[in-house]
Amino acid sequence: MKILAIETSCDETAAAVLADAEPRPQILSNVVVSQIDIFAAFGGVIPEVAARSHLEAILPVIDRALADADCNWDSIDAIAVTHTPGLLGSLLIGTLAARTLAILHDKPLYAVHHLKSHIFASWLRDEPKPIAGSADSLDLEQFWQPPELPVLALVVSGGHTQIIVMKDYNDFEIVGTTRDDAVGECFDKIAKILGLPYPGGPAIANAAQGIFPSGRFADYDPSEPRPGDPFRYHLPHPHVADLDFSFSGLKTAVLRAVQSELGQPINFPSHQLAPLLSARQVADFAAGFEQTAADILTEKMVAALEKYPDTRSIVVAGGVSANQTLRHTLCERLADSVRICFPELKFTGDNGAMVGAAALFEIKNGVAPIDPYHLDIMPRSAIV
Ligand code: KG4
Ligand code: ZN
């Protein structure tokens, strides 16, 4: 079976073709057109602009995914699309395209939950590439291991921070969630305070390594990056009951620490702070915040593992799972007790391949296709 998968829940227009294969779905193509360059100029996503960009990109992206996979409509058996959660206008473009194509080409249509697709990204591996000029190729099968059920998933994205128990391929239960901001949102907001571009996650990770956007610090020598000191500023850990999170206090704590470091009062406007900061201060704030966020997430995963001792694997999912400090901190604390699975970096952000993977697992587990005339979108909905 070959499936065309479409993803437009936020600011990436993506399509992929996957074949059902063992030991894992085979990726025949994976095309992602990002709108990051547009939104870097605005400092965040503008939903109406995102929807319009999806409208322009969606058909060329689908055509490209089919061409890269060497497929035409006769060789596609099904279509999958993200229908929840996400930005309303963005979801609308992807689902309308998928519904129309399903009707036009008479293909079964599968509706996929965005967070499930992020979780299934850990079941994907890109095929081994031959090493140029050598007879050897990386023997991927020797290293690749899929997550084992039951899974404890840490979903960390721009819109969500959740701990999810996954007992089976279609059995998900949210056991912890953020009570305010998502951790990715916190990265994005703190990046703004520090004068770093959108998206904030990669910008903060770079700044913590002493790497800044070109031209940001005139007196800074980029050939000698000086990593930040994560212990220079004390940032508090929130006390939140059970397996829940809170990140809005951490964002305010960084704001107050920056104001105090610069000798400014607490009513000093946050958008006027960045030009007053030195490269050293930005690197230290970025490193301190990144490590604190990683520690908070890791502490909750330690508690979650104690509460769910049958867990065979931890799966880290969503855009923030690309963060290397988070990966190291989780492994340091937990790798001796449980297998920890991270998606390949190219599958951490939004993409079509993970949507196809989720749909293929759902189809195998008896999930029925949805009527293309009646597929609804839901900007907010919990994983079930
Ligand atoms: O999953 P995703 O691509 O989109 C949503 O479903 O929200 O996640 C986007 C989020 C953004 O907040 C972005 O700043 C964050 O993931 N992010 C990172 C990194 N790369 C992306 N956060 C921390 N470190 C990174 N390397
Ligand atoms: Zn996402």
Oligomer: single chain
Structural class: alpha/beta
Gross geometry: globular
Strand order of the largest sheet: 3-2-1-4-5
> What molecules are bound to this protein?
5'-O-[(R)-(carboxyoxy)(hydroxy)phosphoryl]adenosine, zinc ion
SSE ordering: EEEHHEHEHHEEEHHHHEHEH
* Largest beta-sheet details: 5 strands, mixed
Uncertain stretches: none
Number of strands: 10
What proportion strand?
15-25%
Distance between the termini: 25 Å
**Rg from C-alpha positions?**
21 Å
Mean pLDDT across the residues is 95
Provide a descriptive summary of the structure in words.
- The protein is an alpha/beta fold.
- Helix content is 38%, strand content 17%.
- The protein has 11 helices and 10 strands.
- It has helices at 36-42, 47-68, 88-105, 114-120, 140-143, 183-193, 200-208, 248-261, 279-307, 324-334, 352-364, and strands at residues 2-7, 12-19, 26-34, 78-84, 109-113, 151-156, 161-168, 171-177, 313-317, 339-341.
- The chain has a 5-stranded mixed beta sheet, sandwiched between helices.
- α2 runs parallel beside α3 (88-105), α6 (183-193) runs antiparallel to α9 (279-307) and α7 (200-208) crosses α9.
- The longest helix has 29 residues, at 279-307.
- The mean pLDDT is 95.
- Zinc ion (ZN) binds at residues 114, 118, 157, 318-319, 350.
- Residues 114, 118, 157, 318-319, 350 line the site of zinc ion.
